[in-house]
Structures are given as structure tokens and as C-alpha cells.
Amino acid sequence: MTEPVVASDIPRPAAAAPRTRWTALIALCAGFLMIVLDTTIVSVAQASIQQELDFSQAGLAWLVNGYLIAFGGLLLLAGRVGDLLGRKRVFLGGLWLFLLASLLCGLARSQETLIAARFVQGVGGAFASSVILGMIVALFPTARERGRAIAIYAFVGSAGASLGLVAGGLLVDALSWHWIFFVNLPIGLVTIAVAARVLERDEPLGLRAGADVPGALLIVAAQMLGIYAIVAAGEHGFGTARTLLLGPLALALLGLFLLRETRAAHPLMPLRLLRVPDLAAANLVQALAIAGMFGMQFMLALQLQLVLGLSPLQVGFAMVPIALAIGATSLGFTARLMARIGPKATALPGLLLIAAGLLWLQRAPADGSYWLDVFPALLPLGIGGGLLMPALSTLAMANAPTADAGLASGLANTTQQIGGAIGLAVLATASASRSDALRDGGASAAEALAGGIGLAFAISAALALVAGAVALPLLSGRPRVGRRRAATAAARGAASPRT
């Protein structure tokens, strides 16, 4: 049997100088942070937007849903376009589109303009963020440096959501909701200027290597329909006709896409990628873990605001300990731990810590307090996230062929988005049903709400434990190094650590 081609078997361009590499990483993470912030910063401003533009509650939801559908629906395609046309070109093009859409959002004076601009923001965000992991892998060829770089990237992604709540509250209170979009312009322009200067131009495969237009249409339609079905399920329930029709249709389109890829002369997504060691398993574990963690952030914000009575800005500051714990762990500890015991052994304690934190939150009563019932859970949640996300990102990318790094990066981002969307829909539906049942049984409004949110935390903890159970047998825990280059890689210190 032919041994799979892995990243270490493919010649790389000459490595950039160390200082240039880290400057390039800063530029990539700055662009990523801007995009991540935008997924949560809008939630703080929704009341102000609704009042000024006279949104209905259903229309207001499309400020988030329109962005998510475009963003999640295009990540896989965008990652492959990066391989075909050049990742630097796609990253910069995505940032320019994101900034143009941000300007249009800030200037919007009608509901239609704002929703359309948010959709375009999602398109730009998908193209910019889909290739970042692939570019990091190319920038940092040695295992130790790559581990540190991915830890920084994972910290930005994990902590950005909490920082978005704080930034949104400050901007809305001090200026207006328009500035949650205008603030992207100076940040984005500086990021583009630095990235254009320090990112090396990669050699694209060319459109002939994967110009599969039917495949592209099928995967985009499948992902957008699937995410819309998940969003609709969260709003209207899983048993509605809309969900029961769109869900199977999305799966059918995905099946047609996979069938198309087996027959296309130049497939958009070569299915050999799914046979790369650890890649499929790491994405499955990531989807399960993110399903619990993303929904947890939403439910925690509800608990702080509706049960404990905190303002939106106070909610943002109350969640800062998670971001600080993620940063302290991922930036100062995780990379060294992965180098010593391997990414799989690093991820498993992270999942257990996340489950422990969620179970602590699950027990919070209606008359609870932040310092007793919430704060003690934030540290294990943050430490667990700081261990888990860099380890899973490393496993998802470590063995991906260089030629398919953009596609692997897009796949990792896609599983995060779809896992988060499914998790949020499931948790929101279960929480609402539990709250309704408690209210019908005579519980007060606060007790019913606390009980529903507690159930959501319990489900999140179960998802983290299931992710750990899946990781144990499926993940090998160490990136492969091609036999022909094992000795050379080891001599350079680039060989992957043993578990």
C-alpha cells in the first residue's frame, strides 16, 4: 500500500527570517481577531440597532444568522480557493471585502442594507480566515515553533468572543452602534499593510488543479442550507416542517458533492485528504467539543444577564477570566506540554477540565451569585480551552499535505462553525423546553430560567466527555513524518513529539 503523502514529504519554500515569521503571525492573528470579534460584538448592540432601525425580533436575528450562513457556508470552498489561487492573495482579498462590508454596515440606514452588508461581511470573513491555519503551517516548519504559533492562533479564536462583548459594550455606551463596524477600518487597513509586506507569496496550484464548478456549487449550497436548517431549528424547534425538509436536503446535496468528487477529473476537495492520519478524527472531536463550548458561552451570557441581573457590559467583563485563563495556558504552557507529551495527551485533560467547569455551572440556583456559582467554573473552562484548542488544531493540520493546507484549514474552520451552530441550536431548544416545563409545574420565572440553563450546561458537559471518549481510540496523538525525511527532521528538531 502506498504511504500517504504528508506535509514533511513535500518541499517547502525557503523559510522566512524568524522576526519576519512572527510579524507575519501577528498580522494573521490581527485579521483573525477582527473577524472573531464581529461574531459576538453585534449581540451587545442589538437593542440599539433594533430601536434605531425599527427591526422586528425575527428580523434582528438575521444580523447574526446572515453572517453565520455566509461565513460557515463558504469556509471549505474558500480554503480550497486559497490552495488554487494563493493563500496570501485570498487572505488579503477577504480582508478588503470584510472592510468594505464593515463600512457599509456602519453607514446603513435601513434594515435591508444592514442585513445585506452583514452577509457580505460573512463572505469576506470566510475567505480571510479559512487560509490562516494553512499559512501558519507554512510559516513555521518546526514542531516547537508551530506549536507556539498555533497556541497563539487558538487563543485569539477562543478569547476573541469574550473580548467582543466588552468591546461592543464600550463602543455602544461611549459612541453608537455604528462604531462597532467603523472600528474595523483602521485595524483592518494596518493589518493589510503589514500582511502585504511580510507575508511571502506562496506558489498556488492553479485553477486546473481543482476548478470543479459543479462541486463548488454543491458544497456551498449544502453548507448554507445546512446552517440555515440548524439556525431555524434553534428558533422554531427540530420537529418543524422547515427543519425536517431543509436538513435532509442539505445532507442529500452533501452526498452528491462527495459523489461528484470521486468522479471529477480535478476535484475541488480531493477525498485523499480524509485519509490523512488524525485529520478526520481531530475534526470530529473538535466539532463535538465546540458544540458544547460555543453553546456554553451563549448560555453563560444569558445566565449572567437574565438570572444574575448583570448589564451587557458587565457580562463582558464577567467573562474576561475565561479569556485570561485561555491566554495564560495556551501562550505560556500548552506548546511546551505538546512538545513533551504530544497533542492528544494535552487535549484530553482539557476536555475533562471543561466538563468539570460546566458541571459546576449546572448546579447554579436562581438566587446564586457570580463569585460563588460562576467564577469558580471560569478557571477550569479557560485552562481547559487553552489546552484543548491548540492541541486539536495541531492534530488537524500536522499531517496535511502542503498542497492541501488551505483546504485542511478551511475544513477545520468549517467543523468549528457547524459544530457551534448545532450545539447552540440543541442547547437553546433543550433549555427552552426545560424552562417551559418548570414554569408549567409552578416554578417562578427565575427558577424556570435557571433550570433550563442548568440543563444546557449539563448537555455541554456531556458533549465534552463524549469528545474525550471519541479522542481516546481515534487519535494517534503524534504527527507522522515521512520515512524518507525522518532522520533529517529529527536532526533539525522538527520531528513530531512522541506521546
UniProtKB/TrEMBL annotation:
Residues 24-479 form the Major facilitator superfamily (MFS) profile domain. It is a multi-pass membrane protein. CDD domains: MFS_MMR_MDR_like. Its main location: membrane. GO terms for cellular component: plasma membrane. The keyword Lipoprotein does not apply. GO terms for molecular function: transmembrane transporter activity. The keyword Transmembrane applies. This is EmrB/QacA subfamily drug resistance transporter. It comes from Conexibacter arvalis.
